[in-house]
Design goal:
The complex is a heterodimer of chains A (about 120) and B (about 110).
Chain A (H helix, E strand, L loop, with lengths): L4 E3 L2 E4 L5 E6 L6 E8 L3 E9 L2 E4 L8 E7 L2 E6 L8 E8 L9 E2 L3 E5 L1
Parallel strand pairs in A: 2-11
Antiparallel strand pairs in A: 1-3, 3-8, 4-5, 4-9, 5-6, 7-8, 9-10, 9-11
Chain B lengths: L2 E5 L2 E5 L4 E8 L6 E6 L4 E7 L6 E3 L2 E6 L4 E6 L8 E8 L5 E3 L3 E6 L1
The chains are: A mainly beta (about 120), B mainly beta (about 110).
Chain lengths: ~120, ~110
Amino acid sequence: DAGVIQSPRHEVTEMGQEVTLRCKPISGHDYLFWYRQTMMRGLELLIYFNNNVPIDDSGMPEDRFSAKMPNASFSTLKIQPSEPRDSAVYFCASSFQEVPNSPLHFGNGTRLTVT
Amino acid sequence: EDKVVQSPLSLVVHEGDTVTLNCSYEVTNFRSLLWYKQEKKAPTFLFMLTSSGIEKKSGRLSSILDKKELSSILNITATQTGDSAIYLCAVVGSQGNLIFGKGTKLSVKP
């Protein structure tokens, strides 16, 4: 079991550029979550999917953020245009069943820096 | 609004000490509370608590839930430097998602 795989590990970009973060969940997990972590706000849920369908995107900050899950093994989180306040660690997580019936398994995160 | 508050925000102890981390919550239709440990990268799952008063234990770590007080504690006995991490508490929110507290940063000095 390779765990949740995220790429890239680090991303440094200039304000205004498009950023795409990628995630491969654990095979067989039906739920996929995108979280953002900052010192000030901790871990915040951005969006989550069940069987590739977005269920709750109320945490997506604004229209600059979008997420897709075209199939069971791949998801992207896109920020366009990026801003310095988007700098954070973005985590993808997956679970076999609906929370709380099974715990979340997190990827190692993508550290995004927007200058 | 669903909310999770952890205390203290940070803690420095010496090896061998016992520590208690606190988590309080406000959530509609509580179902469970979870503890995670975050070292340098991904949070890793420790415990899930659903029933009040029943202690979950794993080695030197233990946790208990008090539904009446809307809180949980995580105890670590005989701390080691490897216990240094951020400990995160989370509850299942009204939308079925996990809501995390900001965490307690534990530093264990040799």
